[in-house]
Design a protein that fits this description.
The chain is an alpha/beta fold and about 650 residues long. Helix content is about 55%, strand content about 10%. The radius of gyration is 32 Å and the shape is elongated. It is found in: Cytoplasmic vesicle, Secretory vesicle, Synaptic vesicle membrane; Presynapse.
Length: about 650
């Protein structure tokens, strides 16, 4: 009994059964096929069994001319370059039949299992975005980074993700969603692990670049992969629920940063050449979601839609049967048989894909810089200034912080076992002074003169002595590297991580609303409406003159704009055909990462100068995006093409 979908019955969502007289010959007595299921000892055949399933074209041949009249000769001489019209017809027939099969499989345990597995991969992407930002304040001290090097470290991850999105998106349409995702996550895990141990700036930069290339494939593949297991009435809602794992990744990174990085005691060193501080522990912990996703993904099958689009009929059938049987057993109907035996496959031919653009990443990158700038302004407003002071025979053994000393004279003074934080000495003279066990941060001596002074076990390197004169002065046993000390920065670190935690958590309401309404109001209304409201919210940034104000606006913008991202993810999945879906998604996501690179490069230059240009730039991009959204076709209620 072979169900065969006719054109009329396919539209009704049902099928018609045709009976054929089957002659089974077995030259090898007692032979058995590994690909056959459901045979008992007497070789009795029953409904739903898989028996080397005939292709759709062979079924049609039997209908046309009877059991023995398959048009093999015509098929042999058929032109290899099949026309685009024929291919499109095959794709439309597969799309309709595939939707009917997914409805028969139902939505249940299998989809929820895949949901959590792919959620871990999406969570890893969310973590990657935050890693460098959280470790940069510590890494810049540990590696003595200059301002250009710090900027490059912030850019390199987005650049790697941009390359990875395009690379893995294209590869997933060639070798499969599951295999590409496994490879990309493996690369991310390996180089994240290495980056936590390497000491040099160049090797750390290289590892974070390749880590970004690896995780860049997560978003394009995850959404395409999951969508191909969802029927049309579930697709928009459940793809939106999947987006929540990106938020969970941000929360995980913020919580781990707060719990690990400020604890300077969580470190060890081997001599002065190798140091492993707490921020490296954080980098290592951030690789866990990616490793967990790899382990869980090994238990998941490849997308059946990918198999069918690439002519692998039997493999696609087996996966769909697995989905059906898993769901039916979980619902208490283990006796229900997967009734489909023949599924349409698509003839293969190469074709280019035309994709659009989306970018408005820059504003979200600008927020943290504005908050840091406001914090810096507030800190500098408390700076104490001392002029023409004369200090003799005094021992300093306490922390010196946020002070400026100009035209001072220091004679026979001792600076012992202390920390200097944001200290500036200008046009001053130090005569017969003794510096021992000094740890400094943002401390500089400008146009100063040191006479008969001794520096022992300090980190006052030459770059901290700007245009200074050294007369009979000596440096002994200088500290190597840039020493870390979080004892005075714990509250500041806590505030930074807490702000990011709030900003990430703020997208939760937007995620919930978009998931509940995506299939009710449609993708385009969700995208255009959220973009317009986000555009309006940009102008409120003009009033964000305080740290608390900027945090509130960050939360507002994140909560509103997330609905646009969710709608965009769903539309991208549904607009492009299966054989080009991840390629198109990867290209679009690469453009988003390019916008992040441009946002970091351009918007940072306006911090402390003007808010107008970044705000107008972001508002213009959002307005253009909402207008262009109206030009897209609505994909709600359509089968997955």
């Amino acid at each position: 009994v072979w169900p065969f979908y006719s054109d009329h019955s396919r539209q009704k969502g049902s099928f018609t059964c045709f009976l054929f007289e089957t002659i089974i010959t077995n030259d090898d007595e007692g032979g058995h096929s590994d690909s056959t299921e459901g045979h008992d000892e007497d070789d009795e055949i029953y409904e739903g069994e898989y028996q080397g399933i005939p292709r759709a074209d062979s079924g049609k041949g039997s209908l046309a001319g009877g059991p023995g009249s398959v048009g093999a000769g015509a098929q042999q001489f058929r032109d290899i370059g099949v026309s685009e019209a024929e291919r499109r017809k095959d794709q439309e027939e597969l799309a309709q039949q595939y939707e009917t099969i997914l409805q028969e499989c139902g939505h249940g345990k299998f989809q929820w299992s895949l949901y959590f597995v792919l959620g871990l991969a999406l969570m890893a992407d969310g973590v990657e975005i935050f890693v460098v930002g959280f470790v940069l304040p510590s890494a810049e001290k540990d590696m003595c980074l200059s301002e250009p090097n710090k900027s490059m470290l912030g850019l390199i991850v987005y650049f790697g993700m941009m390359v990875g999105a395009f690379l893995w998106g294209a590869l997933a349409d060639r070798i499969g969603r599951r295999q590409s995702l496994l490879i990309s996550l493996s690369i991310n895990s390996i180089f994240s692990f290495f980056s936590s141990f390497v000491q040099g700036y160049s090797t750390f930069l290289f590892c974070r670049l390749l880590s970004g290339v690896g995780i860049g494939g997560s978003i394009p593949i995850v959404f395409s992969y999951y969508s191909e297991f969802l029927s049309q009435e579930k697709r928009g809602e459940h793809l939106s629920w999947l987006c929540m794992f990106w938020m969970i990744g941000g929360i995980y990174a913020s919580a781990m940063a707060w719990a690990i990085i400020p604890h300077y005691g969580w470190s060890f060193q081997m001599g002065s050449a190798y140091q492993f501080h707490s921020w490296r522990v954080f980098v290592l912990v951030c690789a866990f979601p990616s490793v967990a996703a790899i382990a869980a993904l090994n238990a998941m099958p490849e997308s059946p839609r990918f198999y069918l689009e690439n002519g692998k009929h039997d493999e696609g059938w087996m996966v769909l049967k697995q989905v059906h049987d898993t769901n039916m057993r979980a619902k208490g109907y283990p006796e229900r048989v997967f009734s489909v035996t023949t599924i349409k496959t698509v003839k293969q031919m190469d074709e280019l894909v035309d994709v659009g653009t989306d970018t408005y990443y820059g504003l979200t990158v600008w927020f943290p810089d504005m908050i840091k700038y406001i914090q810096k302004q507030e800190y500098e407003s408390r700076t104490k200034t001392f002029t023409k002071e004369r200090v003799e025979h005094v021992t300093f053994n306490f922390t010196l912080e946020n002070q400026v000393h100009r035209q001072g004279y220091y004679f026979n003074d001792k600076f012992l076992n202390l920390k200097m934080k944001s200290m500036v000495f200008e046009d001053s003279v130090f005569e017969e002074c003794y510096f021992e066990d000094i740890t400094s941060t943002h401390t500089f001596f400008r146009n100063c003169t040191f006479i008969a002074s001794l520096f022992y076990n300090t980190d006052l390197f030459k770059y901290r002595l700007v245009n200074c004169k050294l007369v009979n002065s000596t440096f002994l046993h200088n500290k190597e590297g840039c020493m870390l000390d979080f004892s005075d920065d714990f509250n500041n670190a806590y505030m930074i991580y807490f702000v990011n935690f709030l900003g990430t958590l703020a997208v939760l309401p937007g995620n919930i609303v978009s998931a509940l309404l995506m299939d009710k109001i449609g993708r385009l209304r969700m995208l255009a409406g959220s973009s317009v409201i986000s555009c309006v919210s940009c102008f409120f940034l003009m009033f964000g003159n305080t740290e608390s104000g900027m945090i509130a606006l960050l939360c507002l913008f994140g909560g509103i704009s997330i609905a646009s991202w969710n709608a965009l993810d769903v539309i991208t999945v549904e607009l492009y055909p299966s054989d080009k879906r991840t390629t198109a998604f990867g290209f679009l996501n690469a453009l988003c990462k390019l916008a992040a690179v441009l946002g970091i490069s351009i918007f940072q230059s306006f911090v402390g100068i003007t808010k107008a240009i970044p705000i107008l730039f972001a508002a213009g991009a959002l307005a253009a995006g909402s207008f262009l959204a109206t030009k897209l076709p609505e994909t709600r209620g359509q089968v997955l093409q």
